[in-house]
Design goal:
Elements: H1 3-14, E1 42-50, E2 57-64, E3 75-81, H2 84-89, H3 95-118, H4 130-142, E4 145-151, E5 154-159, E6 164-168, H5 171-181, H6 191-197, E7 205-209, E8 212-216, H7 231-244, H8 258-261
Parallel strand pairs: 6-7
Antiparallel strand pairs: 1-2, 2-3, 4-5, 5-6, 7-8
């Protein structure tokens, strides 16, 4: 599937109306979470394929339905990766598998856009010198294991459980992270611990992306996540489970409710 056809199908999925038969707290068949206002508070207006430094991208334009007492732009856009190789390694060969992630990213982006115009400005952090900044970085990484720097701006952390983490980060990028997230805080669950705690065995790299860091299964950009089961396979397994009377997966409700809880 070429980029433009992929983007067309993605737009079609993201602009579908909410299923009126969907029960509150449940997902539609496309597995997009609309409980947070996607499709109502935030609506996708267009998706355009555009070139990027790391392959093709999509520019997703959206509109926000803001309350009268909230100021700020009611429109915006977000650039997201679309490169075919990236889609393949991320398990996003089909637009329906990318759509829930795009919806989630859009809601997060829209929230930050509104917050940037209505929230309390963050107090600027007075950064120490570069030597002290580097010491902070090494301290953060040392929480995870033994740290070496085999090449400039490349840190390898040998974890206590034997796994290896590669962090690719320049001094300028680390400074921007400190400005964005503040200094590491011992004795508190800070941003840096949260990031590392979210890492799986497949995500062996931390790379700088979109003015922040991201976990990735590879060091090339854009960062890639570990592939999940495609929706078509999940639907097949759910249908098979229903036919045999077995449950499928882990559910936070009674197995007797499976027929109603799972998207068809």
């Amino acid at each position: 599937m070429d980029d433009h056809e992929y983007a067309r199908q993605l737009f079609e999925i993201l602009t579908r109306p909410d299923d009126p038969a969907r029960l509150p707290g449940h997902l539609d068949a496309d597995w997009i979470d609309r409980e947070d206002g996607f499709g109502t508070v935030l609506r996708v207006r267009s998706i355009t394929v555009v070139p990027g430094q790391y392959g093709s991208q999509i520019e997703v334009a959206f509109v926000l339905d803001l309350p009268d007492d909230v100021s700020g732009p009611a429109e915006g856009s977000l650039l997201l990766p679309l490169d075919a190789e990236w889609r393949e390694v991320s398990g996003l060969a089909e637009p329906e598998d990318y759509a829930p992630r795009v919806a989630s990213r859009l809601m997060h982006h829209g929230y930050r856009q509104v917050q940037g115009h209505t929230g309390t400005p963050r107090r600027a952090y007075d950064l120490p010198g570069r030597d002290a900044q580097r010491a902070m970085l090494l301290h953060v990484l040392a929480r995870e294991g033994h740290v070496t720097e085999p090449a400039p701006d490349r840190y390898v952390v040998q974890g206590r459980n034997g796994d290896e983490l590669v962090v690719i980060l320049t001094a300028d990028q680390w400074e921007r992270l400190l400005q964005r997230h503040g200094p590491p805080r011992d004795g508190a669950f800070d941003y840096y611990e949260e990031l590392l705690a979210a890492r799986s065995r497949a995500t062996r790299f931390i790379v700088f992306w979109e003015d922040d860091v991201a976990l990735s299964t590879r060091e090339e950009l854009p960062p890639a996540s570990a592939p999940q089961l495609p929706l078509r396979e999940i639907r097949r397994r759910i249908a098979e489970a229903r036919e045999t009377g077995r449950g499928y997966g882990w559910f936070a409700y009674s197995p007797d409710d499976t027929e109603d809880q799972l998207p068809g």
